[in-house]
Write a structure and sequence with these properties.
Blueprint lengths: L1 E6 L5 E5 L4 H10 L5 E6 L5 H12 L3 E4 L5 E5 L9 E2 L1 H4 L9 H8 L1 E5 L12 H9 L3 E5 L2 E5 L7 E3 L5 H11 L5 E5 L5 H12 L3 E3 L6 E4 L8 E3 L4 H13 L3 E5 L7 H10 L2 E4 L5 E4 L8 E4 L10 H8 L5 E6 L7 H8 L3 E5 L2 E5 L8 E3 L3 H13 L3 E5 L2 H6 L3 H7 L3 E6 L1
Parallel strand pairs: 2-15, 3-14, 6-7, 10-11, 18-19, 22-23
Antiparallel strand pairs: 1-23, 1-24, 3-5, 4-5, 7-9, 8-9, 11-13, 12-13, 15-17, 16-17, 19-21, 20-21
Helix pairs in contact: 1-2, 1-7, 4-6, 5-6, 6-7, 8-10, 8-12, 10-12, 11-12
Bound molecules: uridine-diphosphate-2(N-acetylglucosaminyl) butyric acid.
Length: 422
């Protein structure tokens, strides 16, 4: 197992290009099951979750080939591999997002057997809304022996109103509806840029989806979808994480391939804290840190609100911002395991139910910490960048799931950061 070792207090400077979005790539790859013929998807990050998703698709009979330049070629053909409809526990347990093959399998192969993903360290993560949505389209679904077993004769368009916003639940219903008979309306659909990207991808492949980015999606079922060339959106969470790396080290960095319109909540909050952010056109923005940051209150919410996937990173920054900040986690109320690790670095954080109260201190101190999940890991790396002394971060395999060569890229910007085999 590898660990990351950081000597803190180095100012970051330079330019960095943001990779394609993990959470757009995963459902888009799964949606290739619906297409007849090859697709080439550009901007795929080189991370473990993409490898896991590729494995799942190969297991379902798909051809999946990654090229050096971050393009992935995926091919499924109508009528082939109809007897393959299982996403097994060995693969699903590695990555909860593998649940997003459920909708495409049900639509295309009329059967799906997907290991029940269970909870995870960031919270309970039920899938009741996915199941209700697919059942409304006509699927029979039961859970037996740890698997979701779904089958259907013919999916039929209907009106679905989600009782709560769910990103992958919306993706599953959307992918099930595109080839269903008739019209499906999805009320209270998730509007996250990654869901929008999936919808744009499907439309390019021949689907008829309207209301993209709004609360209500309308899907007119079509007979067939074809392979396409597509480029996925830049990763707004990677962009936000690197922006905070610039801010927390009082650095001066330029992000390329950052979509401003997806980053509004993050940019507004960073400016409120005291970080200077200057967009300079062409999806480029400059982040300039300064000496004095102030406490803010922050609440995670569905898009366009503050993403829960940025909560741990903001917590790291607020540890050194003067005054009392309150973070309220509205998406995953238990997603605070990193708070205890940050406390080991000297942070003054008290978790009270779904809120964390942070009192800013002048500096964090390096020590040994442990990563509990992907974004918690990002928060700890950011804390390590500004801490006095050496920070050793263990269990970094969580980081490899979602950030492409994070340590290497931060090192190019001037961080003293190494990856070491333990
Ligand atoms: N929920 C339900 N029932 C459901 C589904 C969700 O009650 O059937 C609840 C959840 O418990 C949670 C809320 O709805 O309170 C939102 O969960 P959502 O379904 O939107 O989460 P997800 O689709 O499973 C995706 C991302 C997560 C991200 C969340 C929230 C992917 C692959 N994953 O998960 O990303 O935190 O949306 O934005 O897109 C990450 O990248 O590190 C990550 C965890």
């Amino acid at each position: 197992m590898d660990k990351i070792v950081i000597e803190g207090e180095n100012r970051l400077e330079g330019r960095v290009r943001i990779n394609g979005a993990k959470n757009a790539a995963l459902p888009i790859m799964a949606a290739c099951i619906l297409l007849d013929g090859p697709s080439r998807i550009k901007g795929i990050p080189d991370i473990i979750d993409i490898q896991t998703q590729s494995e799942i698709l190969r297991n379902l009979g798909g051809g999946v080939k990654k090229t050096e330049d971050g393009t992935i070629e995926i091919i499924f053909r109508d009528g082939e591999n109809d007897d393959k409809f299982t996403a097994p526990y060995e693969l699903v347990r590695k990555m909860r997002a593998s649940i997003c093959v459920l909708g495409p399998l049900l639509s295309k192969r009329r059967r799906a057997k997907v290991s029940y993903p269970g909870g995870c360290v960031i919270g309970q993560r039920p899938i009741d809304l996915h199941i209700k949505g697919l059942a409304a389209l006509g699927a029979q679904i039961e859970t037996t022996e740890g698997y979701i077993n779904a089958s259907v004769d013919k999916l039929k368009g209907t009106h679905i109103s989600f009782a709560g916003k769910t990103v992958l639940g919306t993706c599953n219903v959307l992918t099930a509806a595109v080839l269903a008979e008739g019209i499906t309306t999805i009320e209270y659909a998730a509007c996250e840029p990654e869901v929008q990207d999936l919808a744009h991808f499907l439309n390019k492949a021949g689907a008829k989806i309207t209301g993209i980015g709004e609360n209500k999606l309308t899907v007119e079922g079509v007979q067939k979808l074809h392979g396409v060339d597509y480029e996925i959106i830049p990763d707004r969470i990677e962009a936000g994480t690197i922006m905070i790396a610039g801010a927390i080290t009082r650095g001066d960095i330029v992000l390329e391939n950052a979509r401003l319109e997806h980053l509004s909540a993050i940019i507004d909050k960073l400016r409120e804290i005291g970080v200077e952010i200057t967009p300079s056109g062409n999806n480029t923005l400059r982040v300039k840190g300064n000496g004095a940051y102030h406490a803010v209150d922050l609440m995670t919410l569905p898009y366009p609100g503050m993403p829960t996937d940025m909560q741990a990173q903001f917590m790291a920054l607020l540890c050194i911002a003067e005054g009392k900040s309150i973070i309220t986690e509205k998406i995953f109320p238990d997603r605070f395991i990193h708070a205890a690790e940050l406390r080991r670095m000297g942070a003054d954080i008290r978790v009270d139910g779904p809120s964390a109260i942070i009192r800013g201190i002048p500096f964090l101190s390096g020590t040994e910490v442990m990563v509990s999940d992907l974004r918690a890991g990002a928060g700890l790396v950011l804390a390590g960048l500004v801490a006095k002394g050496t920070t050793q971060i263990h269990r970094i395999y969580h980081l490899d799931r979602g950030y492409e060569r994070l340590a290497e890229r931060l090192s190019v910007l001037g961080a003293t950061i190494k990856r070491i085999s333990e």
